[in-house]
Amino acid sequence: MWGAGGSRRLLGVFPRHLENTMRTILGALALTAALLPAPAATAAAEPQAPSPGPPPVAPAVVTHDVAFTTGDGQRLGGRIFVPPGARGRLPGLLLIHGSGKGRPWRALETEAVEFARQGMVVLAPDKRAAGYSKTRRDFGQLADDALRAFAVLRARPEVDPAKAGVWGLSEGGWVAPIAAARSADVKFLITVGGPGFGALRTQAWNMVNKLDRAGIEGSVRSVLGRELYRLTSDAGLFPGDRADAAGTLRRVRQPVLAIWGDRDDQVPPAESAEVFRANVPGSLTVRFLGGGHTLWVSGRDKADALAPGYASTVGGWVRDVTAGRVPPSSAGAAPAQRSLSRDLPPSAWWEGWRAQLAAAALLVGVFAGYLVTGLRRRAVPSRAGRAFAVLGLVTVPGTLLGAFQMIGAANGRGIDLGPLLAGRPVVWVVLQVLALATVVAGVVLARRWKALPLRQRVLAAGGALFLPWALHWGLLLP
């Protein structure tokens, strides 16, 4: 595209405020598909025999509201769940949220109630809002938050502090092992849907699954599942992109229970389980249960019920571990994944966000400059030149905005890109047609190079960059 020296000279004079603008655009739009909890399919109701009367009502779990202060001074709340009829001091369990800003303790209420019924005192805390966003978050800071809430749990009169541990869901599968590795007070670790890789590789695999379910084909798959993620990672706007999950697991000395749903399509379950098995140095129990990523039977942001056998698996394992019966390492049969995840390499210099920002700005400047100077000078219009400039001026920003808008359509439930044409979103097909028309107009203009006035030569020379730029973004590929 450019020589390295030419790129450095261009970037050296590029206005800093445009870099900041690009960071804002990337951060606001490209990461809306970061690991959000997704619902599993609602279980079908089976016919039941007529009951002679209403079923017995289970004793209510006793609750207490608590609060704790984070290391940076945030005051967060939470709720303690105590088993009904509890006697003496019981094992304690701290719940750590999945992704999402400022999630309340109620998002984990179903887990808290069900685990309490298994004989544990459970703390479901609020999650921080300040210092956490789609583009900025620190797993180490979240682990510190968890340990501060954990201290509140251990201090409860209902809890035996020598029998307290932590549980992490999804993003919490990165955070909980950090907390366990930092504190010997954590006596056991449970993860559900815990990632074995950094967020970049995990989310790219997640996006591919969304595109598969939506029936998306063609070059737009590479743009949405690869190039945009690499771009935001290169810009430093993909939190946890290269998180060292394996390195953290190697520092965990506590017994570990790692659970995945056999239909998990947000975190690669079989591959993640293999990372856990290869790196946890002590007792590791791996289980695969029937369900999706969160092992919720229904609900979007909160479980209505847990997958069958989930709560009892957790309860039985905690009872064994806290009674001194630490099980030897074992693993259930791993489910078959639809596809393997792939590590995304760092961007080359010409793929990086600064180079891409510079290329887009140069193209827009050349196209817009030609049109503006033509109006001011009242130059004799050139149909090819005018078509090339207008088409290019629409296509370049339209491609960037369209791509980020499409990736922004992804959420925990999937991705909806509107009507499809031959497996391609209509918006993408329109952008591809515009790109092809731009190239044709540019070729027509360039063929008259010797007869062109200076102004049109500048347009043709500057616009020559459009061809490799469009190829990189898949606009000229099927």
Helix/strand layout:
Blueprint lengths: L3 H9 L3 H14 L32 E8 L5 E8 L7 E7 L12 H8 L4 E5 L13 H16 L4 E11 L2 H11 L6 E4 L6 H16 L5 H15 L10 H6 L5 E6 L7 H11 L4 E6 L20 H13 L7 E2 L21 H25 L5 H26 L1 E2 L2 E2 L4 E2 L2 E2 H21 L7 H10 L2 H7 L6
Parallel strand pairs: 3-4, 3-5, 5-6, 6-7, 7-8, 8-9
Antiparallel strand pairs: 1-2, 2-4, 10-11, 12-13
Helix pairs in contact: 4-5, 6-7, 7-12, 11-12, 11-14, 12-13, 12-14
GO molecular function: carboxylic ester hydrolase activity; serine-type endopeptidase activity
Keywords: Hydrolase, Membrane, Signal, Transmembrane, Transmembrane helix
Pfam family, one: Peptidase_S9
What would the average pLDDT be, to the nearest integer? 87
Please outline the major beta sheet. 9 strands, mixed
Helix and strand pattern: HHEEEHEHEHEHHHEHEHEHHEEEEHHH
**Rg from alpha-carbon coordinates:** 27 Å
The secondary structure category is alpha/beta
State the shape.
elongated
What is the CATH topology descriptor of the largest domain?
Rossmann fold
- Regarding quaternary structure, what we see is single chain
According to CATH, what is the class of the largest domain? Alpha Beta
Strand content: 5-15%
Keywords: Hydrolase, Membrane, Signal, Transmembrane, Transmembrane helix
Transmembrane segments: 353-375, 387-407, 427-446, 458-476
Protein name: Alpha/beta hydrolase
Domain Peptidase S9 prolyl oligopeptidase catalytic: 111-278
